[in-house]
Amino acid sequence: MKRVLLLGGTGDALRIARQLGHEHVYSLAGLGKVPDDLPCAVRVGGFGGSEGMARYIADERIDLVIDATHPYAAQISANAVKAGGVARVPCWALRREAWQPQAGDDWRMVGDWAELTAALASFKRPLFTLGREPLAHLDEIPLQQFWTIRCLDAPETHPRARILATRGPFTLEGERALFSAEAFDVIVSKNSGGSATEAKLEVARECGLPVVMLRRPELPAVDREFANVADLLEALRVSA
């Protein structure tokens, strides 16, 4: 197998990392828990943009970059493609399929924070499932709203916000219990795809709640693109 630099942070990336040997590198930005039980090497921290990543690829004699970051991590995906081009190594990407609205869904698509807040203007108790981004806007909470923000860690407190420090996957039963206890009137989500956080959409559908959905960013073209972990691992095995 070629020496791989795996860009991760997602559950799918961790599944790939568990199949990599000691010569490969799993790179994390540093947010959340850093795994200490992987057979491959683990690198934590940024590269210093695409130029820094290109230098790392060359210095470490990387043969293949795999982008298995979050679908909304557009900057690191762009850096991976640029760095691969400079270092003249291929870049593959795991890009899981987006969720699709189903019968009974009320999705309101938005493109940025300004559109998102406008879409929430008539609601009182939103549940944010965007990660840490809403924490930067706690001082902008409208007087009529109380926010619940679910993210990996929660150092901040606020009189009109509850911050839930938790990590998926989330079960259907757990989401039903949370929604029942908190009486949300709207859900705010990224279209992340995958099963780990999909239960909230099913419960929103059951409860007749609207979902303000942040559109996926456009990501750069790569040498090979995969929709699931199994196909990517098989391609790695074949290319060994």
Write down how many β-strands occur, each being a DSSP E stretch of 2 or more residues: 12
CATH topology of the largest domain, by name, is Rossmann fold
Strand content range: 15-25%
H/E topology pattern: EHEEHEHEEHEEEHEHEEH
Structural class: alpha/beta
* Uncertain stretches of 5 or more adjacent residues: none
Helix content: 25-40%
How does the overall form come out from the CA principal axes? elongated
State the name of the first-level CATH class of the largest domain. Alpha Beta
* The CATH architecture of the largest domain: 3-Layer(aba) Sandwich
**How many DSSP H or I helices?**
7
> If strands are numbered along the chain, what order do they take across the biggest sheet?
3-2-1-4-5-12
Report how far apart the termini are.
Answer: 3 Å
Organism: Paraburkholderia agricolaris
EC number: 1.3.1.106
GO molecular function, one term: oxidoreductase activity
Keywords: Cobalamin biosynthesis, Oxidoreductase
In short:
By secondary structure, this protein is of the alpha/beta class.
Question: Topology, please?
Answer:
Blueprint (H helix, E strand, L loop, with lengths): L3 E4 L3 H7 L7 E4 L12 E4 L4 H11 L4 E4 L6 H14 L3 E4 L12 E4 L2 H7 L6 E4 L17 E5 L9 E5 L6 H11 L3 E5 L8 H9 L3 E4 L9 E3 L2 H11 L1
Parallel strand pairs: 1-2, 1-4, 2-3, 4-5, 5-12, 6-11, 7-8, 7-10, 8-9, 10-11
Helix pairs in contact: 2-3, 5-6
